[in-house]
Amino acid sequence: MTNVDSIYINSKYPVTIHRIEQYVKNKEAKDRFIVDKDMTLSKCPKYRQTGLTWKFPGSLATRSKFECFQEGNQLCKGVTTGNETGKCVVTMEGNNLIHRRVVNASNNGVEFFYCYLDKATPQRALTYNVDWRNSSAIPRKGVPPELLFPVIQPKTGIVSPPTAKTSAAQHLTAPEISFEE
Fold first, then answer.
1. pTM for the full model?
2. What are the boundaries of the region Disordered (predicted)?
3. Predicted local distance difference test score (pLDDT) of residue 83
4. In angstroms, rounded to a whole number, what is the distance separating the alpha carbons of residues 70 and 51?
5. What does the domain layout of the chain look like in residue ranges?
C-alpha cells in the first residue's frame, strides 16, 4: 500500500490504523490524528484508571465537532481550554490541540475509548482499547501521575514506565501492517 496514512475498519467501535507521525506522507492534512511513535493504543494498566491522549491539528474555532466516547457513551463534545461543562478540555501545542483524559474502568473486561474529529466522518477516529482484567483497585492516594501519562526521557526516547500487553489486547490490535515509504 502506498500513500496511505490511515486505514479505517467499520465495526461496532471505530477501528483505525494510523501511520506514525514521522512517516506520515501528507502532514498538511488537517483531518487526522497525530500518532507519535511512543503511543500505545492497546493498554493494560496496572490500576483501574489510566490516561489517554488524542493529538490533532486545528484550533478551538475549527474543532467544534470533536467528541469522545467510552463504549458508545459520550464523554465530551466540542473543545475548550477552560472548564466548560460537557466540552473536551484541550491544550495547545503549536498548531495542534491535545486532549488528555483520565478514564476509569466501568467493567472488568476490555473497553473502547475513542474520539472523532467529526462524527460525520467516522474514518477520522482514534480508538484505544483498554484491558482492565488484571488491573488493581485505584490506590487510596490515587494513581501516580507518571502511570497515567508516562514521561518520555529526552535523551533515550524511552517511555517510563513500560506498558504490558496481555493476549487479549494483542488479539484486539491489528496485525502488523507495513507501509511503503
1. 0.76
2. 160-181
3. 86
4. 13
5. 6-167
